[in-house]
Automatic annotation (TrEMBL):
Segments forming domain HTH lysR-type: 1-60
Pfam families cross-referenced by the UniProt entry: HTH_1 (PF00126), LysR_substrate (PF03466)
GO molecular function, a single term: DNA-binding transcription factor activity
Protein name: HTH-type transcriptional regulator TdfR
Entry-linked SUPFAM superfamilies: Periplasmic binding protein-like II, Winged helix' DNA-binding domain
Species per Swiss-Prot/TrEMBL record: Photobacterium piscicola
Length: 297
């Protein structure tokens, strides 16, 4: 069975206008052409869709069901044409974006959701890796743009735009503090350096330069693994507040107060990077604008 769109158009027109002649006028065809098209349609289906026993053809019971399905098919075909036309006018059909999990909170997810409605025909590829890996993928031109926490070395030979700041905290469990700091949440620099520090693997140079004086420094790839290790009293950790929100609210961990001045920064700076000299497509410009309008979190 090979039913063409023109056949469905003739059938729907005949059903809606009540006669083959009226359908022919509407479609700018001859009555004979419409009548022959519908006859061949019925042959393909194996049953009649019109009762021709009266002056004007009337839909049979099976014809009524066919009409409903034909209208659905034509609506889908029209949607296909509209989307194909919009794709024809697009400069980019597929965009590749990298996002470090350290910056991927609900605000970022909300932007991705808006992208699906504002640019519905875009095919989106998202890579979630640490910032160091994302910078390598940008340099290899495997990504169009990446959002993360990039140090100076990772920005070399790349374009970058400041995006937003992320509030972070050092935390530990109360049982860990009871065991190693007499229960106190304030740490001196000497006390701090005697702890086992759990930090994201990609941030070994920024913003933890002073932390290298610690006796034990664990670099862990996955942020949720860092938090799990902290819950198990393995050490103290530093993570974004949006990652710690649930544990802080339920008092599974406590915020630490660092009494020294060397590591007082409680924010990390997120940036966008992309290949140097690249012409950003409209979709990438849209994402860039959305990400840089985010307020600190």
């Amino acid at each position: 069975m090979n039913i063409k769109i023109e056949t469905l158009s003739s059938f729907i027109a005949a059903a809606e206008y009540g006669s083959f002649s009226a359908a022919a006028r509407q479609l700018n065809k001859t009555q004979a052409a419409v009548s022959l098209t519908i006859q061949n349609f019925e042959i393909d289906l194996g049953f009649q869709v019109f009762d021709r026993s009266s002056k004007c053809p009337r839909l049979t019971e099976k014809g009524e069901h066919v009409l409903k399905n034909a209208k659905i098919m034509m609506a889908q075909y029209q949607t296909f044409l509209e989307r194909s036309l919009s794709i024809y006018h697009m400069n980019d059909v597929k965009i590749k974006v990298g996002i470090d999990p350290l910056v991927c909170n609900d605000k970022i997810l909300s932007i991705i959701k808006r992208l699906s409605s504002d640019l519905p025909n875009i095919e989106l590829f998202i890579m979630q890796q640490n910032s160091k890996r994302l910078a390598e993928e940008i340099k290899a031109k495997n990504l169009d743009i990446a959002l993360g926490i990039f140090d100076h070395e990772n920005k070399i030979n790349l374009e970058y735009t400041q995006a937003f700041n992320i509030n972070v905290s050092w935390v530990a469990t109360q049982s860990y503090l009871d065991k190693f700091n007499d229960g106190a949440t304030t740490l001196s620099y000497q006390d701090f350096c005697q702890q086992r520090l759990l930090i994201p693997a990609s941030l070994d140079s920024l913003p933890f330069e002073e932390a290298k004086a610690a006796l034990q420094l664990w670099h862990v790839e996955d942020i949720h693994t860092i938090l799990s290790l902290c819950r198990e009293d393995i050490g103290i950790c530093c993570l974004p507040d949006f990652v710690l929100q649930h544990d802080l609210k339920n008092e599974l961990v406590k915020k630490l107060n660092l009494s020294f001045s060397k590591i007082t920064s409680n924010v990390w700076s997120a940036s966008l990077i992309y290949p140097i000299g690249s012409q950003l497509s409209p979709a990438i410009h849209w994402l860039q604008g959305q990400f840089t309008e985010i307020e600190s979190f």
